[in-house]
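Structure catalogue
Derive tokens from sequence
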Amino acid sequence: MVTVQEATQARTARVAARRGRTRRTVTWWQPLVVLAVLVGVWYAAAAYYDHVRSLAFLVPYPHLVLKAIVWDTDPSGTVTTFGHDLWTALGRTSVVSLTGLGFAIVIGVAWAMLMAQAKWLENSLYPYAVILQCVPILALVPLIGALFGYEFVSRVIVTVMIALFPMVSNTLFGLQSSDRAQRELFRLQRAGRGAQLVKLQIPSALPSIFVGLRTSAGLSVIGAIVGDQFFQRGNPGLGVLIQVTASRLMGPELYATIIIASLYGVAVFLVFGLIGRLAVGRWHDFG
């Protein structure tokens, strides 16, 4: 015989499942509607610049941008090497961004762990993290180039400088947010700083660490493209390709490069968000 409590729980579970299905059904098409509206506005703007102002290269038609991404031909049908150059540049930018992100993770977590050990260390070191975040990268370009050259190493340094601060600030916040009662328990048990860090602070800081990682992952793509524009020697990436297509008034190719760079940034952001969900999502509501 089913009790009233069991019937209520079953009904609540059915309502929750129905709401979950409805939410999934509702959300999948909403971005597509927005995309369709944006493409329509894009076509309208392209037609205006093409027929009214005769400046079609400023706002090319979306299908020409798509063609530049997929096929190695220009609007006149001439075979080009842009498609190959685009994907080659994407690969080089990916190497720079992931390398810089790796260094930013190691440096940022180590920096935050050091500051979490004592308040005087935080007061001494945290202002320099803020300064590093606020310093204009353009002002340091001549110095970085003179010290490390104008190729891969300098690009990675710029990427690290741009992507570092979120790792430092979020990791420090997570390490300092461990439960106060648990910290007192560790002190009562006379646990050392290392044991408290490994067994209490780092596990409790994982959600914040992955939030910082996700933010730094997106910034690392920006850093790689910015560094590529500053240091144009060596193997060019997406930053150099953006400058080249802009200087040559290659509208579809310029937009194609910008779109691929944006999609790569979104992909990196989503991948590290998924890693965060897999790592801490079972016991923490990781957004």
